[in-house]
Amino acid sequence: MQDNTDPRILLVDDEERFRTTLAKRLKGKNFEVADLGSGNEALDYIKDNQVDVVVLDIKMPGMDGIETLGEVKKLVPGIEVVLLTGHGTVETAVEGMRDGAYDYLMKPCEIDELVEKINGAFAVKKERDLRLKQAEDRSRLDKLEKAVRF
Amino acid sequence: MADHYQKTYSWIRRHIILVIFLVLSIPFILVITIVYFTGYQYIKSSITQQAGFKLADAAIEVRSELDAGITGLCKTMSFLSESETMSGLQEEETLARIFARLEKESGDVFQDLAVVATDGQVLAGVFPYGRVYVDFSREEWFIGSCEDRVVVSDVHFDSRNNPYFIISVLHDHCQEQAMLRATVNGLWLSAFVENVRLGRTGEAFLVNSKGIAQTRSRMGKDFGEKLNMVFLEPQPDGTIRMAYHEQGVEMLAAITSLKSNSNWFLVVRQEKEEAIEDILMVRMVFIFGVILGVIFIMVIGYLTSSMLMKKIRQADEKKCEIDEQLIQSQKLAAIGQLSSGVAHEINNPLAVIGEEAGWLQDLMKDADFKDFKHAEEFRDSLGAIVDQVRRCKEVTHKLLSFARKMDSNFSEVNLKEVVDEVVEMREQDAFLDNITIEKVYDKKLPIIFSEPYLLRQLLLNLVNNAVDAISKGGKITIHARMGPQEKVLISVTDNGFGIPRENLNKIFDPFFTTKPPGKGTGLGLSTCHGIITKLGGEILVDSEVNKGSTFTVVLPAKPNPGNKTGEQAAGVE
Known about the structure:
Distance between the termini of chain B: 37 Å
CATH topology of the largest domain in chain B: Beta-Lactamase
Helix content of chain B: 40-55%
Radius of gyration of chain B: 60 Å
Structural class of chain B: alpha+beta
Number of strands of chain B: 17
Low-confidence stretches of chain B: 562-573
Order of helices and strands of chain B: HHHEEHEEEEHEEEEHHHEHEEHEEHEEH
Number of helices of chain A: 5
Oligomer: heterodimer
Number of domains of chain B: 2
Mean pLDDT of chain B: 82
Helix content of chain A: 40-55%
């Protein structure tokens, strides 16, 4: 569908300065980045915009990372999520992975690691999208075949 | 450890000893008193009584001998007087013949013989000792003779101070009356009693009703000695038994009057102390019993108090140990809570700083900065910032892992696998430093029930420490074995520089490190301590400077139900 485009990232973290700077750095590494300060805003955003990978801080006021993750997966199952965590919440991060997150990173994180994870998540998404597309193509062909036969 | 309790201990000890002694002594003294006033006194009085019987028996025996002797003399005299006529007796020749017969029959007993008229005039006489008598009318024996047929007088002394006594027999022939009077040697009488022997102090002697000694005695009484004696009512067997004091010595005596002369009393006596010698044995046994009892009480008191003290001391020591452990774990928990709070708060600013620096680094890569003359300085500074942020991050992560709470995922763990894994992780580094790691496993190493991740981290920390303790070229031995009471022991031994004694009690404190700044956080062993507490085991250290250290982890092989639920409760929170 959108094969050769840059990955579109949504960065969700309540720590504004961290979020904006990280967004700038990621943009510098050829990602399309949007950044938001809370889970609710993120949910609103993905309803209207195409997003490939969400980088989600677990510890946030209001709706926390895990809840947001659940909602995101409910809304758009195809989106991959990378969780950011303080060390104290590693178990929660692992729990998040059971709920469908791609992976987690401990804050403060190395930019290279983050990029790697994002790329990994994006690759998974791309591959799944590809399979989805192939399946759709196949089913269309099947329908055509049936139509031709009868 | 409990030296400052010494005062209290000696106080408790004194009281215990006092109480035990009182508790044991009071009944003991009671029993001793009762035994003394009943048993001992009863035995003593019965022994005294026995001694009295013995003396009385001796008295009766001596008395019958004396009576027989004296009566014998009297009978001989009576016989002779009866066999002669009054006129015959008055002839000197006949009298001399009779005296000769008397001497012959009774030995050297008779000293002289006389015939005395009823008015006291001497009618005839044989006086070998040269005594000359004129008138007897006033003499005591004479007065007595007028009333009784046979009279035995008290002992008198002649001019040469020889003791004698008189036997007079009334001659009563056809209205003519006269008395046959004989003088008997006092020594003959004395011989009966002088030879009586009764132990060491026993003696016998005769005394008249006025208390004047009639014989000598073995213990030095002499004829005519005035004795201070009190006579009591006689017993049924004719004896008087009594105890009295003479010159401060207690005497036991049996007294009996003679049948041949009711004026004479035979005294058989002995010092009481000797007479009741048998009581000494009883007394010895008694005293021995008392001493034995006292020793017994002392030994029991000492042993009991020692035992109690030992128990108290042990309990105190145990309490101290537990208190110390409690304080240690409370301290660690408090520090953990504090540090995790700090770490959390610092983590976010750190992340921001890291990102900002990274962003600047990114910017520096742009071509625009090629001409910037301080570009190199900038890059260097930013690099330093990023490095220091990384260092801070390490600290905060370790702090958090030291304090973190997590669900305990207890499962079956193969110790051998865990150790192998850990060693594999560090073997490469160790090899570069020329350190060999040796693994020793017991053949019967059980599959234990524990938390594999924590266990791995624990062992990894210990191995890291061991590697760090060896500068270059050394040996680390990991020995996993079965211990007593279902415990598993894993010891990590290095031959590194060891831990000085003064540091041994600080090594588990967070942030305690001997490494230079930046090289170690001082959280390794405190994390180990946290983990081992979580796993329900303990960690032991044995170290000698320049010889090396051994850290031994003791783990329960089987799950400990009480401990586990406690951990889970803490984990769920």
